[in-house]
Every structure is written in C-alpha cells, then in structure tokens.
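User: Please predict structures.

Assistant: First:
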Amino acid sequence: MDNNIIDAAFEEGQIIKSSLYKAQGETSQKTIERFSYKFLEGLRRKDNGDLTSNLIRLYCNLEQRSIPEFFKELLKDIGSMNQIGYAFLLGLNSYKESFAKSSVQAGSEDTQKESESNENDEEE
C-alpha cells in the first residue's frame, strides 16, 4: 500500500470535516459521530458493501464533492480497506493544530481589542 494513498485518505477526512462544518454548522459533529460509528463497525466486520454505502451517504451530504478514486481500494482487499478506512477516520475526527492556533489568536486579538476599548472608555 502506497503511503501517498494513506496520506490522501487522511487529508480527505479533514477536508470532509471542514466541508460538513461549513454546510451544517454545529450539527456536523453529530453527522461525523454517526458516520464514524457506522464506518468503524463496517471496518470491524470487514464489510465492503456497508463501508461503500456509508461513504456514498456521507458524500451525498456534500455538494460539489465526489468520492475520491483511492476509495476503490476499499473494494479490492481487506488490508487496503483497513489502512485507508482508518486513515480517513483519523482525518475526519482530527483537530487541526493550525486551526486551533488561528482560533486562539483570533480570540486573543478580540480580547486585546476589548481591553483597549475598555481603557478608552475609562479615560473619557
């Protein structure tokens, strides 16, 4: 199994998470949790049909997004199915450090602006 495919599956999971959040807002977390549970169960049972139908349902929630070609590997053999499936789930359920840093920075900038505003109010 090519590591590039595993990396692509992880990155696809992160992209799907972001796309779902943009489309559904806070309810996207429930969608991700439901999908993850069903997908993990399919991986555990080694059920290609179940995995494929869950992927199709997930991608139906997204406009303008097609299922990547590397998911065909899920249908070929069990080893690939596990590696690609788990990599995708890890990406889908991951928390990007860069996103966390930007959120913290945005929050600290807001706090700084608020404190400057309060200082200006006190001076008047």
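Second:
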Amino acid sequence: MRNCLDYIENKLPGNVEIHGLYNAYTEENMARRASSESINEPFTKIFPRGMHADSGGLQMLTLGKGSIEKEDRLKIYETQAKYSNYAMSFDEIPSIIKDDIRYYLPDQVSQKGIDSGVNLKEQFDFFDEFETDCKIIPIVQGWGIDDTEKFASGLFSKLSKKQLAKVDVLATGFPVASPYATAKRVFDLFKVKTIPNKVKKHLHLLGVTGTKRIVPALILIKNGFTPGLEILTFDAVTLAMSYVMGKQIPAIENFLEGKSQIFLGKKRNDVVESYWTELYDFWKDDPNCIFDDVDDMLEHSYYNKQGLNSGYQQYVHYLKADDEGNFLPENKVIADLHFTKVLKQEQYYILYQIHNYIQILEHFLEDKISLEHIFVGKDLEIFTALEKVTNNDEFEDWFNYVRKVTGFSIPTIGKNYQDTIDVVRSIFGDDIEIVEVGRKKQPSRSSKMHAQEISNTNDFLF
C-alpha cells in the first residue's frame, strides 16, 4: 500500500496529501493486526502524513449497540491513541433521522454541545494519562452562526487551559449534504468567536464526497474568508468503495473533454478491456507491479473468464485441496500468488480513482480548470457568483439568493412534534416533545435537472 501511494503521489504536484481513515469501532481488529509482529506495518507507517481514526459512535448506534456507555468510549480512545495520528471526538449530534430524512433539532444544540464537551474532556484526560502524541479533533455541530456559537461554547467549556492549548484542529459536520451547505458552514465557522482562532488552523470536513462538495470551500479559501487556515482535510468513503460500486473518476484529459463516465456491466467486453488497459498503462511502471500484461490483470478481476471473480474463489481453485482439506505445498504457493494478484488489482483500481480525483482538485487549485468543468445550469451561475463575493454582506446576499432560487433549506424539527417523541427518547434518552417547523418537502434535485444537465459527466460522477 505504501509503495503504491508513493507511486501516485510522485505523479502529482503535491498540493494535496493522501491521509488514511479507519473506524475505531468497526475496524479495531484491522488496526491491531496491522501493528502486530506478523505484519509489522502499523497504520501510522502506511500513512505517515496522517492516520485519522473515527470514533465509530454513529456505527455503534446504527449497528444495534443501543447506547454508548463510558466503557465503550474508553475502548475507542485506546484504539485511537495506539493506532492513529488524529482522533475524532465523540460528538452528540442535534439531529434525528425519521423516514430516511435527517432533521435538525435547534432546541437541542446547547445541550448537545455541553454533552459533547463532557465527552471531549473525558477523551483528553484519557489521552493525557496514556501519553500519546495522537491529536484529538473536536467536532463542532450546529447550523448558522448563533447555533454554532452555542454548540462550541459547550464543547470547549470543560477543557483545562493546558488541554485547550493542545487543540489546533477542528472538524465539522453538516445537517445536510449539499454544496450550498459547504459554503455556508465554512463561512459560519470562521465567524464564530467561541472557537479559538488557533483551533481553526486545520479544518476537517466530515463526509464531503465529490468535487461539487469540496469546491465551494476552496472558493471561500481563495476569497479570504478563512483567515489563519493552513490545512483543509476531508474524508470521502465513496472513493474507497469505487471498486465495489463500479464507479470511476475520469482521468484529467477525459474530465476536461467532458467525457461521460464509463458504465461497467457484469460481462467482459470491449469497454471493460479498454478501461483495464487504461489501468494497466497507468500502473505498469510501478516497480512493484506483479502483472505480466493487461490480460493478467483482467484475469484477476471481477471479469475472470472462468467466473473466479473474488480472491477467495481463485485461492480455493488453485489450492486444489481434497475433501479433508489436504493440499500440495506447491499449490499453496500458486494459490497465494493468485489471491495476492486479485487484491493488488482491486487496490490498483481504487488508488487510480483517488489519483484522478486529486488530480482534478490540483488542477482547480492551479486554475487549470474552471467552474464550467464542474457545474452546469443554475449551479454554474450560483458558484460563478460566489467566486466574486469578497465580504460578509456580499456572502449573505449570495446565500439569500441561493435559498430564493433553489428552495434550499435545512429540514428542521421543533420541540412539540408529537410523532417523533418515541424516536427521540430511544436515541437521546430525553423526554422532550418535538414539532416540525414549516418545512415543505423538496423534490430531489435530480428531478429538477434539465436533460442537458443530466447528461453531463459531472452530474453522473459527483
């Protein structure tokens, strides 16, 4: 993995670094094994510039844990402290999911900030005792300057002066996934006074996937709305899942030409062979490439001609074990090689998408691509206007215009909404009553696109 990362990083200008991210709850075994004597390649060595560990709090709830107890958090803290450079805090989110819609709960912002502050203090105390160099990343929730002020006030209130002095990085969540939300959230964070300025040196955007989500933040940075910011990081799990999902990020030359994404079917055909030729041509000069040619790479992919489309299937096929599990040593060597080639091919596929994604960002940072390559229609007009915004009043005017022409809003619930009492109690353990405040259900954005917008490469990709 490290050698592959070196290979693609040497092909890039270097404005964007590649860090790692793992879930300290669901992937603790992987982190531990990666640091064992049998492998001896800890995560922090594979990603020396930065290994991030998510707290896994959301996964605990969604995977049926029910509630998160102190012993759960302490186990997460130990995993983070041992195997990472950056550790996400346990944030309490002022939101609720009902009927697949995430609702923002403004009445809970202050309390959730305080609760998050208690967790943050607990994490700092543990890390101080553990004597780790891992940095804790506090997560700030909220929407709008006032609510973010309330949340941040509670978040940092429990830390000692010595602990607060250690904080030089901040993460933020979003109540909704939208490029408009990215712009608004970044703008608000750098206006909030309860967040110390030095904490804003490094900002991490949680769950920001795709060029359309990250570019609004880059525009605000270029226009001077993020004073003191030195590092912007973000995580995008979609790229890591690209092989499973059959997704591709176009090479920069294809991106600039507006070529559509390739849709790979289940059968090996000319389109599939052409794309794997592109993959092979990219990786063939890698000193650690183990493929003889493009056909060798394809035969160790989903498109294996014998239908052996996983590493396990190829391993079993070449091991040739009998009914009692006995096999020849030479078959084990062959089986191991084929299993390794399948994993290497998947790794090459995923890292190629990451390379192409970073290359697009690099070109935007260097003004080699414009907004016309990223947005279309009304969004192109909106973000072209954002590029011209230079002060606070102009930004507020811009955002008001966005809400007017797009209907953009945050799904919000107030405290008297009877239908969600049981759900709130089950998640938060509170007795509050909640009510939805004047929300009109918006049609999906895809339903409002014009035909020419839907056919555009970027809409399919991002």
